[in-house]
Structure formats: C-alpha cells, structure tokens
Amino acid sequence: MTDSCATPDSGHSQTLLLVEDNPGDARLIEEAFSPALADRLRVVSTGDEALDFVNQRGEYVDAQRPDLILLDWHLPGIDGGTVLAELNSDSNHRRIPVIVLTGSQSEQEVRDAYAKNANACITKTAEPDELEATLRVFENFWLSTVRLPPPANEV
User: Fold this and answer.
1) Pick from 3, 15, 133, 135: most CB atoms within 10 A?
2) Are 83 and 47 in contact (CB under 8 A)?
C-alpha cells in the first residue's frame, strides 16, 4: 500500500468525505486510515451537511469536491438513501463513487443501497480490529488501486 492519496496517474490528492452521525464510529474510521488519507478525510454528521458539502453551500462553500464518499445509511433527518438518490440525480455528482456503511445485517438494506446505485456496501462491525482490517482493505482498493473518475468539469 502506498502512503500517497493520489489516484494512480492523476497527480491529484484525493478528498474523502465521511458521512457518519456516530462520533465513536467516525473516530474509529478516521483512526483506521493511514495518516496520509486521514489528512484528506472530511467528516460531516448529517445528510443535509453531506449535500451542502458536495454542493459547496453554506459553511462548505470552499470545500473541495470529494473524490469518494463513505455514507452511513442510517442518518438523522435526510437518510443515506435520500443522499444517494440526490447525488445520482445530479450529473455533476453522479460520478462520485459512494460506498455505503451500515451496521445492519439486513439483506433488504443492501439491495436498497445497490438499487440506488451505491458502488459498494460495507457492514460496520462492532469489533474495532475487524473494522480497522476492513477499512485497510477499502483504502488499499479504492484509494490505491482503483482509478477514480475526474470531476465532471474536467472531462
């Protein structure tokens, strides 16, 4: 695994948006990532904040467009499914890969996430060591191996 957060051949440092309402889970997720990625991780706790961040509204007017979103499915207010549907309805944002995080074992929830065009689903385990191992695999694959799409305005 590399220490760089640059997409292969892109020369661009990736921004990862974590949408997680549980501060303990957010902290565990942040600590599981490499220091280089943790520096590029931005965290919001509601669906409203996620949409504001991606759309560069309000306090997020200067936010860098995320290259990838880790989205908790169970959020207060606007839930993960609604956030995902809104992102996919906007041609400027549907290119951003969205990885759904859920603490549920529900097969229906996984089907619903993929029906709304999630790029992947990760089940959050209650065991910190298992969660860390899962997130290391995630980081290695999504941020070191996969070539993420450029923003719509760079195409």
Assistant:
1) 135
2) yes
Which parts of the chain sit beneath pLDDT 50? 1-11
CA 133 vs. chain centroid, Å, equals 17
Dihedral of alpha carbons 110, 111, 112, 114, sign: positive
Tokens of 80: 């993960």
- 5 near 145, Cβ under 8 Å? no
- Strands 98-102 and 68-72 turn out to be parallel
Q: How confident is the model at residue 153, as a pLDDT?
A: 61
User: Which candidate, 63, 53, 59, places its Cα nearest to that of 20?
Assistant: 53
* Phi then psi dihedrals of residue 15, to 5 deg: -110, 130
The closest of 56, 32, 33 to 44, measured between CA atoms, is 56
Tokens of 125: 């385990």
Q: How far apart are CA 4 and CA 31, in angstroms?
A: 17
Place of tokens 């065991």: 127
